[in-house]
Write a structure and sequence with these properties.
two-stranded antiparallel sheet, Serine Threonine Protein Phosphatase 5, Tetratricopeptide repeat, 75% helix, mainly alpha, single chain
Amino acid sequence: MSINFLCPDHRNWVYFHPQEALSYLDDAQGVGEKLLREKDWQEATAYLGCAFETTEILMELQGATKSFLLGRLTVLASMLANAFYHQKAYQYQEQIITQAKANLHTAAQASLGNKPRLAYIQECIASLKADLVVRPSAEGVTLH
């Protein structure tokens, strides 16, 4: 199961206007980052989530090996995981990291033979593993 943030109309717009979507991606991420700094976790999630899903679509359209998209996906997943954590939405925190890692694994498969790109993807995956922070549970503390 993947988390979707875009409505069907906006999802279609990204597919049919990928160049314009790059500009939208920058704007949405910028607003989301500002909202994170202000600790407005719920609104930040909306903007960062739209930027995340836009990045996923652009990776699908432009190829999963574009380094700037790989880095962008990783950063957005990290920020979303943080926002979900602060909302105590731990299942979504875990899911967004899983979703990003799946995209990165797809990129790794498409990058076989390109050692520098594979190393970069492995760094991205490792940084996402670090983003699954300690969360409370009924019996104490669990690591995810």
